[in-house]
């Protein structure tokens, strides 16, 4: 399909930026002790960029490793290890100029490190849960490498010299540069990986290039990061130590916050939220709406959810207003589609069932479940897989209750520890989903449901959908294709869309500065934090 080259060529060069400003406003008196304790909500399976596969790991990865680009607090792409970049006339070859920087062990970081790391990420032998992400922009030979048809060394990346990294795409992809701040595309230190193997990320072994490195890690207890004095912008990093706790229970986390042991309470149980926000007005902060979409996977190939009538009945009979306003109380907005409407270049639509009253949806759901052959004598039986976060368990319980009341369904809720849940390859009939944008473009959600996607826990396969998503990759304006793809996904009810993020209130200790949760992709860097004197 033809693409508009002239349109693609605009704004493809970023001027060099040599350093960032110190994050501390003038006149601020800093505490002598620059240390903070934060909750990461879950233990992670790995902090190796190539092994990260979910937000808790990405959250840590942003502090430990730095890729070609970063994002500012508004989500705009800014230089990271790359100070500038440019593209050739048809936007298939990108050239990145790297700053002089070093690893935490003092060795220079070069373009060869990016070549090794990107090849390692996409190499099937690495078994990266996010290798597909490197294939999204269509880097030359990426698909063939992932299929085992070519070696990883054939990937379209090369080091022109120590400070110049080149990437060749099979075809122009307008949003390529937006991908580059993702934590999985950060470099790793080859000699360390090859010396220590799977243990290279352990304290004492790990070598990083980000603002922090790991000094202590006790699984299911804590991870301690300390400032990386070799980081290229270390003079503007104020924090000396971050202690991360893997607390999944919002009540436990809140109690630790109220006791002064944790700096923030981002997930406040709904039953206590209004009272606490009024009690501690000086601590109330706003988490701006991020590009997040919460949905649930339906298994489209096995069990009762193989039947589209069952999937539609389940989707119709969930009262999203109750979920968002009475259960979560965190500013969420009900959703009947997948892609948040504020996504760049995306035109949202409203499916017909979103315009019905909940009573109408329930009546239609009852009719569909009867047509599918279920009744009091033959009740619908479902397995529902969810992580053990208190909010997710509460959500699953509420949804199961709605299905029982409206459809007479019997739901077996299977609770898995987060790291087990995220590594699971055998989802139930209904499986907790959700996605926060890896980049601000509709394909970050829609690519999940192509038939070859490793994240497609619905096992959804539709040739027309795949064709639309493939065509969209090289278009200057793929809005029409994205809209058609989302309509197809919802018509087939491959997922149960539930809600998107809205602005949310949380509590933060007053002594913490630079904690600004405004980035739409939730890309937040602790290098910008500081502790004020009392």
Explained architecture:
- There is one protein chain.
- Strands 13, 14, 15, 16, 17, 18 and 19 form a seven-stranded mixed beta sheet that branches.
- The chain starts with a helix and ends with a strand.
- The longest helix has 18 residues, at 390-407.
- With 534 residues, it is α+β, with helices and mostly antiparallel strands.
- 28% of the residues lie in helices and 19% in strands.
- α10 packs antiparallel against α12 and α16 (463-472) runs antiparallel to α17.
Offer a few descriptive terms.
534 residues; alpha+beta; seven-stranded mixed sheet; four-stranded mixed sheet; 22 strands; 28% helix; disordered N terminus
Give a nutshell description of this structure.
It contains 17 helices and 22 strands. It has 534 residues and is of the alpha+beta class. The strands form six sheets. Strands 13, 14, 15, 16, 17, 18 and 19 form a seven-stranded mixed beta sheet that branches. The protein has a four-stranded mixed beta sheet with strand order 1-10-9-8, with no helix packed on it.
What's the total helix number? 17
Q: Low-confidence spans: pLDDT under 50, at least 5 residues? A: 1-19
Overall pLDDT confidence? 93
Query: Mind summarizing the main beta sheet?
Result: 7 strands, mixed
Briefly note the structural class of the backbone: alpha+beta
Helix content: 25-40%
Which geometry do the CA atoms define? globular
């Amino acid at each position: 399909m033809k693409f508009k080259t002239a349109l693609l060529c605009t704004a493809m060069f970023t001027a060099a930026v040599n350093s960032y400003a110190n994050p501390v406003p003038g006149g601020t008196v800093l505490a002598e002790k620059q240390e903070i304790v934060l909750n990461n909500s879950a233990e992670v399976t790995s902090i190796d960029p190539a092994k990260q596969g979910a937000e808790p790991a990405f959250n840590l990865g942003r502090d430990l490793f730095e890729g070609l680009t970063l994002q500012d607090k508004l989500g705009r792409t800014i230089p990271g290890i790359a100070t500038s970049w440019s593209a050739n006339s048809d936007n298939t070859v990108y050239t990145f100029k790297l700053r002089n920087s070093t690893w935490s062990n003092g060795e220079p970081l070069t373009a060869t490190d990016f070549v090794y790391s990107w090849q390692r990420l996409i190499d099937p032998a690495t078994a990266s849960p996010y290798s597909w992400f490197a294939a999204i922009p269509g880097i030359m030979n990426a698909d063939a490498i992932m299929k085992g048809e070519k070696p990883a060394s054939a990937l379209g990346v090369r080091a022109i010299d120590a400070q110049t990294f080149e990437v060749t795409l099979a075809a122009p992809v307008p949003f390529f540069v937006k991908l580059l701040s993702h934590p999985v595309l950060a470099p790793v230190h080859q000699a360390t990986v090859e010396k220590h193997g799977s243990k290279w990320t352990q304290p004492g072994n790990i070598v990083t290039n980000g603002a922090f490195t790991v000094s202590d890690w006790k699984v299911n207890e804590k991870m301690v990061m300390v400032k990386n004095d070799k980081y290229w912008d270390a003079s503007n990093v104020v924090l000396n130590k971050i202690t991360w706790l893997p607390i999944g229970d919002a009540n436990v986390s809140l109690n630790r916050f109220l006791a002064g042991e944790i700096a923030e309470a981002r997930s406040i149980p709904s039953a206590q939220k209004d009272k606490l926000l009024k009690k501690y007005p000086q601590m109330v902060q706003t988490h701006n709406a991020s590009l997040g979409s919460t949905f649930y996977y339906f298994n489209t190939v096995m069990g009762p959810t193989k039947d589209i009538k069952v999937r539609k009945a389940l989707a119709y009979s969930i009262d999203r207003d109750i979920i968002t306003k009475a259960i979560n109380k965190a500013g969420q907005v009900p959703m009947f589609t997948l892609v948040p409407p504020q996504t760049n270049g995306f035109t949202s639509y409203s499916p017909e069932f979103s315009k019905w009253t909940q009573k109408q949806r329930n009546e239609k759901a009852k009719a569909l479940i009867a047509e599918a052959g279920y009744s009091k004598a033959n009740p619908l039986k479902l397995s529902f897989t969810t992580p053990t976060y208190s909010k997710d368990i509460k959500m699953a319980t509420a949804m199961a209750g709605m299905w029982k009341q409206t459809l007479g369904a019997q739901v077996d809720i299977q609770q898995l520890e987060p790291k087990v849940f995220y590594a699971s390859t055998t989802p139930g009939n209904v499986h907790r989903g959700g996605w926060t944008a890896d980049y601000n473009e509709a394909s970050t959600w829609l690519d999940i449901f192509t038939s070859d996607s490793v994240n497609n826990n619905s096992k959804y396969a539709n040739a027309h959908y795949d064709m639309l998503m493939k065509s969209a990759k090289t278009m200057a304006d793929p809005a029409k294709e994205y809209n058609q793809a989302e309509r197809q996904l919802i018509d087939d009810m491959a997922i149960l869309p539930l809600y998107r993020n809205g602005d949310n209130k949380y509590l933060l200790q007053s002594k913490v500065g630079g904690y600004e949760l405004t980035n739409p992709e939730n890309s937040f860097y602790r290098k910008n934090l500081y502790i004020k004197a009392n």
